[in-house]
Amino acid sequence: MMEISPQLYSASQIAVRDCMGLQPGERVLVITDAPCRTIGQALFNVTNDFGNEVFLVEITPRRTHGEEPPPEVAELMQRVDLVLCPTSKSMTHTNAKRSAAAKGVRVCTLPGVTEDMMVRCMNADYFKIADLTNKLAALLDETSVVRVTSPAGTDITMPVKGRKAIPSHGLFRGKGKGGNLPTGEAFLAPLEGQSQGIVVVDGSMAGIGIVKTPIRIMVKDGYAEEITGGEEARTLVELLELHGRPSRNVAEFGIGTNDKAKITGVILEDEKVLGTIHIAFGDNVTMGGTINVQSHLDGLVLSPSVWFDDRQIMHNGKLLVSTERPS
Length: 327
Fold this sequence. Notes:
Number of strands: 20
Number of domains: 2
Mean pLDDT: 95
Radius of gyration: 19 Å
Structural class: alpha+beta
Number of helices: 8
Protein backbone atom coordinates (compact mmCIF):
# COMPACT_ATOMS: atom_id res chain seq x y z
CA MET A 1 0.00 0.00 0.00
CA MET A 2 1.33 3.42 -0.98
CA GLU A 3 2.15 5.59 2.03
CA ILE A 4 0.30 8.91 2.12
CA SER A 5 1.61 11.73 4.30
CA PRO A 6 -0.77 13.23 6.89
CA GLN A 7 -0.42 16.63 5.18
CA LEU A 8 -1.47 15.25 1.77
CA TYR A 9 -4.32 13.29 3.37
CA SER A 10 -5.59 16.47 5.06
CA ALA A 11 -5.35 18.48 1.81
CA SER A 12 -7.24 15.72 -0.01
CA GLN A 13 -9.96 15.86 2.62
CA ILE A 14 -10.40 19.60 1.98
CA ALA A 15 -10.61 18.96 -1.77
CA VAL A 16 -13.20 16.18 -1.53
CA ARG A 17 -15.31 17.37 1.39
CA ASP A 18 -15.13 21.19 1.31
CA CYS A 19 -14.50 22.05 -2.33
CA MET A 20 -16.40 19.25 -4.09
CA GLY A 21 -19.03 18.81 -1.37
CA LEU A 22 -19.04 15.00 -1.26
CA GLN A 23 -22.33 13.65 0.07
CA PRO A 24 -23.08 10.27 1.71
CA GLY A 25 -23.99 7.63 -0.86
CA GLU A 26 -22.38 9.40 -3.81
CA ARG A 27 -20.26 7.23 -6.11
CA VAL A 28 -16.84 8.57 -7.00
CA LEU A 29 -14.37 7.88 -9.81
CA VAL A 30 -10.68 8.81 -9.46
CA ILE A 31 -8.77 8.89 -12.77
CA THR A 32 -4.98 9.14 -12.54
CA ASP A 33 -1.76 8.23 -14.34
CA ALA A 34 1.75 7.28 -13.27
CA PRO A 35 3.13 10.82 -12.61
CA CYS A 36 0.16 11.68 -10.35
CA ARG A 37 -0.37 8.24 -8.84
CA THR A 38 0.30 9.38 -5.23
CA ILE A 39 -2.37 12.09 -5.43
CA GLY A 40 -4.81 9.63 -6.99
CA GLN A 41 -4.23 7.19 -4.14
CA ALA A 42 -4.69 9.93 -1.53
CA LEU A 43 -8.03 11.00 -3.03
CA PHE A 44 -9.10 7.35 -3.21
CA ASN A 45 -8.16 6.77 0.46
CA VAL A 46 -9.99 9.87 1.69
CA THR A 47 -13.16 9.07 -0.29
CA ASN A 48 -13.07 5.46 0.87
CA ASP A 49 -12.62 6.57 4.48
CA PHE A 50 -15.66 8.84 4.14
CA GLY A 51 -17.59 5.63 3.40
CA ASN A 52 -18.33 6.25 -0.28
CA GLU A 53 -18.11 3.77 -3.13
CA VAL A 54 -14.99 4.78 -5.08
CA PHE A 55 -13.23 3.48 -8.21
CA LEU A 56 -9.56 4.14 -8.96
CA VAL A 57 -8.57 3.97 -12.65
CA GLU A 58 -5.03 4.55 -13.93
CA ILE A 59 -4.70 5.47 -17.61
CA THR A 60 -1.73 5.84 -19.95
CA PRO A 61 -0.51 9.47 -19.80
CA ARG A 62 -1.94 11.55 -22.62
CA ARG A 63 0.35 13.35 -25.10
CA THR A 64 -1.10 16.84 -24.72
CA HIS A 65 -3.40 18.84 -22.46
CA GLY A 66 -6.96 18.32 -23.68
CA GLU A 67 -6.43 14.90 -25.29
CA GLU A 68 -9.35 12.53 -24.67
CA PRO A 69 -9.16 9.62 -22.19
CA PRO A 70 -9.95 6.09 -23.44
CA PRO A 71 -13.65 5.74 -24.42
CA GLU A 72 -14.25 3.15 -21.69
CA VAL A 73 -13.13 5.68 -19.08
CA ALA A 74 -15.21 8.44 -20.68
CA GLU A 75 -18.27 6.20 -20.39
CA LEU A 76 -17.55 5.40 -16.74
CA MET A 77 -17.30 9.15 -16.00
CA GLN A 78 -21.00 9.48 -16.85
CA ARG A 79 -22.07 6.73 -14.45
CA VAL A 80 -20.90 8.24 -11.15
CA ASP A 81 -21.70 11.39 -9.13
CA LEU A 82 -18.22 12.85 -8.77
CA VAL A 83 -15.05 12.47 -10.86
CA LEU A 84 -11.58 13.48 -9.61
CA CYS A 85 -8.83 13.68 -12.26
CA PRO A 86 -5.27 14.03 -10.93
CA THR A 87 -3.48 13.43 -14.26
CA SER A 88 -0.26 14.72 -15.80
CA LYS A 89 -2.14 16.20 -18.78
CA SER A 90 -5.32 18.21 -18.31
CA MET A 91 -8.73 16.63 -18.88
CA THR A 92 -10.52 19.97 -18.38
CA HIS A 93 -11.00 20.66 -22.09
CA THR A 94 -12.19 17.22 -23.20
CA ASN A 95 -15.47 15.98 -24.59
CA ALA A 96 -15.39 13.29 -21.88
CA LYS A 97 -15.48 15.95 -19.17
CA ARG A 98 -18.14 18.00 -20.95
CA SER A 99 -20.38 14.96 -21.52
CA ALA A 100 -20.15 13.92 -17.86
CA ALA A 101 -20.94 17.45 -16.67
CA ALA A 102 -23.95 17.59 -19.02
CA LYS A 103 -25.34 14.56 -17.16
CA GLY A 104 -24.96 16.35 -13.81
CA VAL A 105 -21.65 14.80 -12.77
CA ARG A 106 -19.28 17.07 -10.82
CA VAL A 107 -15.81 16.88 -12.37
CA CYS A 108 -12.66 18.12 -10.66
CA THR A 109 -9.47 18.25 -12.73
CA LEU A 110 -6.01 18.43 -11.12
CA PRO A 111 -3.58 18.42 -14.08
CA GLY A 112 0.08 18.02 -13.13
CA VAL A 113 -0.73 18.31 -9.45
CA THR A 114 2.07 17.63 -6.96
CA GLU A 115 2.02 16.86 -3.25
CA ASP A 116 3.66 20.20 -2.41
CA MET A 117 1.05 22.04 -4.47
CA MET A 118 -1.84 20.18 -2.86
CA VAL A 119 -0.61 20.81 0.68
CA ARG A 120 0.14 24.52 0.09
CA CYS A 121 -2.75 25.58 -2.11
CA MET A 122 -5.58 23.53 -0.64
CA ASN A 123 -5.01 25.38 2.64
CA ALA A 124 -5.83 28.73 1.00
CA ASP A 125 -8.91 30.67 2.11
CA TYR A 126 -11.28 29.58 -0.65
CA PHE A 127 -14.06 31.83 0.63
CA LYS A 128 -11.75 34.85 0.22
CA ILE A 129 -10.66 33.55 -3.20
CA ALA A 130 -14.32 33.14 -4.18
CA ASP A 131 -15.11 36.77 -3.27
CA LEU A 132 -12.30 38.15 -5.45
CA THR A 133 -12.92 35.69 -8.29
CA ASN A 134 -16.64 36.47 -8.41
CA LYS A 135 -15.88 40.21 -8.38
CA LEU A 136 -13.48 39.95 -11.35
CA ALA A 137 -15.87 37.68 -13.27
CA ALA A 138 -18.68 40.22 -12.79
CA LEU A 139 -16.43 43.00 -14.15
CA LEU A 140 -15.47 40.82 -17.14
CA ASP A 141 -19.15 40.21 -17.89
CA GLU A 142 -19.58 43.96 -18.41
CA THR A 143 -16.45 44.30 -20.60
CA SER A 144 -16.31 44.61 -24.39
CA VAL A 145 -12.53 44.54 -24.90
CA VAL A 146 -9.68 43.30 -22.69
CA ARG A 147 -6.23 44.80 -23.26
CA VAL A 148 -3.02 43.45 -21.72
CA THR A 149 0.49 44.92 -21.80
CA SER A 150 3.64 43.80 -19.98
CA PRO A 151 7.27 44.90 -19.52
CA ALA A 152 8.39 41.91 -21.64
CA GLY A 153 6.46 43.18 -24.67
CA THR A 154 2.93 41.82 -24.45
CA ASP A 155 0.42 44.17 -26.07
CA ILE A 156 -2.81 42.47 -27.11
CA THR A 157 -6.47 43.37 -27.40
CA MET A 158 -9.12 40.66 -27.04
CA PRO A 159 -12.77 41.48 -27.83
CA VAL A 160 -15.01 39.60 -25.37
CA LYS A 161 -18.42 41.29 -25.62
CA GLY A 162 -21.23 38.84 -24.89
CA ARG A 163 -18.98 36.11 -23.55
CA LYS A 164 -19.77 34.88 -20.04
CA ALA A 165 -16.91 34.90 -17.55
CA ILE A 166 -16.34 31.80 -15.43
CA PRO A 167 -15.34 32.19 -11.77
CA SER A 168 -13.20 29.19 -10.84
CA HIS A 169 -13.30 29.72 -7.09
CA GLY A 170 -12.85 26.24 -5.69
CA LEU A 171 -16.38 25.63 -4.41
CA PHE A 172 -17.91 23.14 -6.88
CA ARG A 173 -20.80 21.58 -4.99
CA GLY A 174 -23.76 21.89 -7.37
CA LYS A 175 -24.96 19.36 -9.93
CA GLY A 176 -22.77 19.40 -13.02
CA LYS A 177 -20.34 21.89 -11.47
CA GLY A 178 -16.59 21.50 -11.64
CA GLY A 179 -13.20 23.02 -12.31
CA ASN A 180 -9.55 22.87 -11.35
CA LEU A 181 -8.17 22.19 -7.91
CA PRO A 182 -6.16 23.88 -6.63
CA THR A 183 -7.85 26.88 -8.18
CA GLY A 184 -8.42 30.62 -8.17
CA GLU A 185 -9.03 32.37 -11.50
CA ALA A 186 -11.64 34.31 -13.45
CA PHE A 187 -11.58 33.54 -17.17
CA LEU A 188 -13.49 33.61 -20.44
CA ALA A 189 -13.18 32.83 -24.14
CA PRO A 190 -12.39 35.87 -26.30
CA LEU A 191 -14.44 36.16 -29.49
CA GLU A 192 -12.96 33.95 -32.19
CA GLY A 193 -11.07 35.61 -35.01
CA GLN A 194 -10.85 39.04 -33.37
CA SER A 195 -7.83 39.19 -30.99
CA GLN A 196 -4.88 41.22 -32.28
CA GLY A 197 -1.36 41.90 -31.00
CA ILE A 198 1.60 40.31 -29.27
CA VAL A 199 1.70 37.88 -26.35
CA VAL A 200 5.07 37.39 -24.66
CA VAL A 201 4.97 34.34 -22.41
CA ASP A 202 7.68 34.93 -19.80
CA GLY A 203 6.37 32.93 -16.84
CA SER A 204 5.55 29.37 -17.83
CA MET A 205 3.84 27.51 -20.66
CA ALA A 206 1.57 24.47 -20.45
CA GLY A 207 3.34 21.37 -21.75
CA ILE A 208 6.73 23.07 -21.38
CA GLY A 209 7.20 24.44 -17.85
CA ILE A 210 9.04 27.55 -16.66
CA VAL A 211 10.13 29.64 -19.62
CA LYS A 212 13.81 30.63 -19.67
CA THR A 213 13.70 32.36 -23.07
CA PRO A 214 10.41 34.27 -23.46
CA ILE A 215 8.06 32.99 -26.17
CA ARG A 216 6.86 35.78 -28.49
CA ILE A 217 3.53 35.00 -30.12
CA MET A 218 2.16 37.27 -32.83
CA VAL A 219 -1.63 37.09 -32.87
CA LYS A 220 -3.54 38.14 -35.97
CA ASP A 221 -7.31 37.79 -36.36
CA GLY A 222 -7.55 35.49 -33.36
CA TYR A 223 -4.77 33.02 -34.23
CA ALA A 224 -1.13 32.57 -33.20
CA GLU A 225 0.52 33.21 -36.57
CA GLU A 226 4.19 33.57 -35.65
CA ILE A 227 5.95 32.02 -32.64
CA THR A 228 9.55 33.02 -31.99
CA GLY A 229 12.09 32.75 -29.19
CA GLY A 230 14.34 29.91 -28.14
CA GLU A 231 13.97 26.22 -27.47
CA GLU A 232 10.65 26.71 -25.65
CA ALA A 233 9.17 28.46 -28.71
CA ARG A 234 10.21 25.55 -30.94
CA THR A 235 8.63 23.08 -28.52
CA LEU A 236 5.39 25.06 -28.50
CA VAL A 237 5.24 24.98 -32.31
CA GLU A 238 5.71 21.20 -32.21
CA LEU A 239 2.89 20.81 -29.68
CA LEU A 240 0.56 22.96 -31.77
CA GLU A 241 1.38 21.04 -34.94
CA LEU A 242 0.03 17.85 -33.33
CA HIS A 243 -3.53 19.18 -33.68
CA GLY A 244 -3.39 21.65 -36.57
CA ARG A 245 -4.58 25.20 -37.00
CA PRO A 246 -7.50 25.11 -34.48
CA SER A 247 -4.93 24.65 -31.70
CA ARG A 248 -3.62 28.16 -32.52
CA ASN A 249 -6.96 29.80 -31.67
CA VAL A 250 -6.85 32.41 -28.89
CA ALA A 251 -8.99 30.37 -26.53
CA GLU A 252 -8.85 32.02 -23.11
CA PHE A 253 -8.02 35.10 -21.12
CA GLY A 254 -7.66 34.39 -17.41
CA ILE A 255 -6.56 36.25 -14.31
CA GLY A 256 -5.16 34.53 -11.19
CA THR A 257 -6.78 35.02 -7.75
CA ASN A 258 -5.01 32.56 -5.41
CA ASP A 259 -2.63 34.30 -3.00
CA LYS A 260 -1.10 30.98 -1.87
CA ALA A 261 -0.17 29.85 -5.40
CA LYS A 262 3.37 30.36 -6.70
CA ILE A 263 5.13 29.76 -10.00
CA THR A 264 6.50 26.22 -10.10
CA GLY A 265 6.42 25.35 -13.80
CA VAL A 266 3.14 23.44 -13.46
CA ILE A 267 0.51 25.52 -15.23
CA LEU A 268 -2.29 24.22 -12.97
CA GLU A 269 -0.81 26.31 -10.16
CA ASP A 270 1.03 28.97 -12.17
CA GLU A 271 -2.12 30.32 -13.86
CA LYS A 272 -3.75 30.81 -10.44
CA VAL A 273 -0.98 33.08 -9.08
CA LEU A 274 -2.31 36.43 -7.89
CA GLY A 275 -0.79 39.23 -9.98
CA THR A 276 -0.51 37.26 -13.23
CA ILE A 277 -2.68 36.70 -16.30
CA HIS A 278 -2.68 33.83 -18.77
CA ILE A 279 -3.71 33.50 -22.38
CA ALA A 280 -4.44 30.05 -23.77
CA PHE A 281 -4.53 28.69 -27.31
CA GLY A 282 -6.74 25.89 -28.68
CA ASP A 283 -10.00 24.48 -27.36
CA ASN A 284 -12.54 26.88 -25.85
CA VAL A 285 -15.81 24.94 -26.06
CA THR A 286 -15.75 24.26 -22.31
CA MET A 287 -15.88 28.01 -21.64
CA GLY A 288 -18.54 28.90 -24.19
CA GLY A 289 -16.50 29.24 -27.37
CA THR A 290 -16.79 27.42 -30.70
CA ILE A 291 -13.38 25.77 -31.25
CA ASN A 292 -13.27 22.05 -30.39
CA VAL A 293 -9.76 20.60 -30.59
CA GLN A 294 -7.81 18.16 -28.40
CA SER A 295 -5.37 20.83 -27.24
CA HIS A 296 -5.49 23.70 -24.75
CA LEU A 297 -2.18 25.35 -23.84
CA ASP A 298 -1.95 28.26 -21.38
CA GLY A 299 0.87 30.79 -21.36
CA LEU A 300 1.64 32.89 -18.26
CA VAL A 301 2.40 36.62 -18.54
CA LEU A 302 4.28 38.23 -15.64
CA SER A 303 3.79 41.77 -14.25
CA PRO A 304 0.87 42.54 -16.58
CA SER A 305 -1.13 45.74 -16.85
CA VAL A 306 -4.75 44.99 -17.67
CA TRP A 307 -7.68 47.10 -18.84
CA PHE A 308 -11.33 46.07 -19.00
CA ASP A 309 -12.44 48.63 -21.61
CA ASP A 310 -11.27 51.97 -20.15
CA ARG A 311 -10.92 50.72 -16.57
CA GLN A 312 -7.45 49.64 -15.52
CA ILE A 313 -7.75 46.72 -13.11
CA MET A 314 -4.07 45.76 -12.83
CA HIS A 315 -0.79 47.69 -13.06
CA ASN A 316 2.50 45.80 -13.46
CA GLY A 317 1.09 42.81 -11.59
CA LYS A 318 -0.60 44.79 -8.81
CA LEU A 319 -4.35 44.27 -8.69
CA LEU A 320 -6.30 47.52 -8.48
CA VAL A 321 -9.45 45.72 -7.32
CA SER A 322 -9.82 45.16 -3.57
CA THR A 323 -8.93 41.65 -2.37
CA GLU A 324 -10.48 42.21 1.06
CA ARG A 325 -13.61 40.34 2.07
CA PRO A 326 -16.46 42.56 3.22
CA SER A 327 -16.76 42.58 7.03
